Amino acid sequence: MPDPVSTTADDAIAGLGIEERARLGSGRDFWTTEPIGAIPSITMSDGPHGLRHQDPAHAGDALGIGPSIPATCFPPAVGLSQSWDPGLAERVGAAIGREAQAAGVQIVLGPGINIKRDPRCGRNFEYYSEDPHLTAALATGWVRGLQQQGVGASLKHFAANNAEFDRMRSSSDIDPRPLREIYLRAFQRVVTAAAPWTVMCSYNKINGVYAAQNRWLLTDVLRGEWGFAGAVVSDWGAVDDRVAAVAAGLDLAMPGADEVGDQRVAEAVQDGSLPESTLQATAHRMAALALGAAANARPETRWDIDEHHSLARTVAARCAVLLKNEHGVLPLERSGNIAVIGEFATEPRYQGGGSSHVNATRVDIALDEIRALAGEATVTHARGFDTANAAAAADLRAEAVTTAAGADIAVVFLGLAAAQESEGFDREHIEIPADQVELLSAVRAVQSRVVVILAHGGVVRLAPIVDAADAILATALLGQAGGGAIADLLFGVADPCGRLTETVPVRLADVPAYDNFPGENGHVRYGEGLFVGYRWYDRRELEVTYPFGHGLSYTTFEYGDIHTTADDETVTATLRITNTGSRPGREIVQLYRGRESSAVLRAPRELCGFATVELEAGAAQDVTVVIPRDEFAYWNEAAGRWLVEGGEYTLFAGASSRDLRARTTVALTGDPVTVPLTRESSLAEVMTHPVAGPELGEQLQPLLGDSGSAGADLGIDMAQMVGSIPIGRLALTFGGLMTAAQLDDFLDRANTGATGR
Ligand code: BGC
């Protein structure tokens, strides 16, 4: 919630009748809320990588697709995340906050933090990663930066909105552990660490219930468990049944006006089917939000277009990932002849389509920026391909081959056109267009030094092009200053320091959700469970083209041993990083935790912390990563809570999820937990209970005799066989061990008398 103000929410709603309170819960138009009494209107705008504020003169268009005012287009989340830099995300959030203040916008609809479950999701460019830890760290930075400017965030899309297909109806069917450990985890972290003013619920259903009408999600978990004090806003058009939504904990149905819904809410309160206290609570939250937003408004704010463009360039340079660099082909020399090939060199692909699309203040053209930094070098250019005209492919390719043949090196821009991916639909494949692959091999045939610059919002398959390039710079989408940043990186003005936030698979058939995406018959089954992204490829021991976390620099780093200390709250890991190359550089040290033997299924390794270090050539520094204890926890379904298993964990330090350079072990004390025993509890579960286990052991002794030999005549392992039998059946059916009354008494004593592991 925004800072407190002098008119309290209590005062503001005190004089309002039921109908007026109901009206607080829906918008006035596409972007604003209705001012009622002392409660002012709120203005909202998209979106996460720049402000999409519609010119009020055009705000009336019902779809919100009219023109928006010029704003700085920073790298979309797919690019920003590759910086692995929460501090940088905070600076971007702050810059967007300043632009929002100047435009009179009080809530910016972002960040989008859904997990990239499948590379085909059309909106992956708006999301950060396949990993919840990394997603949460970056989004926390972004929200803090924005809100420090007095502008509220809207953490979206809550929750499990991981595909565009049928997004307004489909049910994401997810088991409790993946739901908590993968899909809700980043939301939980950002809510508790950065207190966003609002959370935006998603369009889809979760296990059969619309997010907008899901009381478990919006009230029990978000408010009850995580302590969220802000308002829940619906995604635009996500509310199917307004009364059910209010009952579930939704505060604001957008867009407006929903007069019919307001009326129904008021009637439901009047006829007693919706408790008046529920309406009171939601009206209070809306009043607090609007009053706080107004009190934080600074319409006199000014921002400088050049300054923000230059920040966008600094940020973009940190976001590109150098996937390979053979024979030190990069950085480029500022002499000789450089052939720049590809449509995207002159018509940059720098953001995605849909509600986040920004009207950029200006756009850097990579070819111009390369020329500006090329010094003595001659820079030639050929278009190479035309994304809008496939028929031109052969001619453009022939021209590009001639250009490349006459040069000392070819820099080839490849990627996906805007029309090939966007909000609203998913891709059916992850291939780079065939004419571009052909172009690259034709260039390769005449030119021995080839650099590829990639631009795309969703992951593309790189296996067909990897061998045709000496160096590959994966820019994802870099925003309006991407062209300048690419030139900085190519000439070594900036060192590439981005790291992948998604795995690049060898083929589509290897991806975790291959058989469960995008779903059918209104359901998408999250059948891969916990094994999303690198968790899947590692567990299946699948080869990948580039692993999560991968990225090179123009220098090299050496990792020392990991030293750890632990207390009740944290594990602290320290290791020495040395720059062993001849240039300054920035390393991102990634920490993964694993557990050899566990009571539950786990991924071999999971990211649990990371840190960055900037080092001059030859310099060394100790890097410390503090890992909160809850990074070791899993969601225990029976107990309905997070639980740290006691015992040993392995901690790996790596330059990627597959380039593990150091390891150590750390021992943790387990959380005490009471898992209530019932008649359904298996004998094995009862035997591990501290009170019930020993008592039952004594009772079973006469029955089973010596456990080592029991069952031997039948060729069975008696302990294993009997272990899975529910105590209710064992006690009452098989051995007549106890009467029903004795069993209930036994379970009662166990449940009231002890805590167990
Ligand atoms: C999108 C949201 C966006 C909203 C307003 C919806 O279609 O899913 O992300 O904030 O529109 O434009």
**Could you give the order of strands across the largest sheet?**
9-14-13-12-10-11
Number of helices: 22
Helix content: 25-40%
What would the average pLDDT be, to the nearest integer?
A: 94
Between the first and last Cα atoms, what is the distance in angstroms? 38 Å
Total beta strand runs: 27
Q: Evaluate the radius of gyration.
A: 29 Å
Give a list of the ligands: beta-D-glucopyranose
> Which class do the helix and strand fractions yield?
alpha/beta
Sequence stretches where pLDDT stays below 50 over 5 or more residues: none
Major sheet details? 6 strands, mixed
Strand content bin: 15-25%
Shape: globular
Give the topology, please:
Blueprint: H1 9-14, H2 18-23, E1 44-45, H3 77-80, H4 86-103, E2 107-108, H5 132-148, E3 152-158, E4 171-173, H6 176-183, H7 185-194, E5 198-201, E6 205-206, E7 209-210, H8 215-225, E8 231-234, H9 242-248, H10 259-270, H11 276-296, H12 305-319, E9 321-325, E10 337-341, H13 366-373, E11 378-382, H14 393-405, E12 409-415, H15 434-446, E13 450-455, E14 471-474, H16 482-490, E15 504-505, E16 523-525, H17 534-539, E17 544-546, E18 557-559, E19 563-566, E20 570-579, E21 585-594, E22 606-615, E23 620-628, E24 633-636, E25 641-644, E26 647-654, E27 660-668, H18 683-687, H19 692-704, H20 718-723, H21 727-734, H22 740-753
Parallel strand pairs: 1-2, 2-3, 3-5, 4-6, 4-16, 5-8, 10-11, 10-12, 12-13, 13-14
Antiparallel strand pairs: 6-7, 9-14, 15-17, 18-20, 19-20, 20-23, 21-22, 21-26, 24-25, 26-27
Helix pairs in contact: 4-5, 5-7, 12-16, 13-16, 14-15
The structure holds beta-D-glucopyranose (BGC).
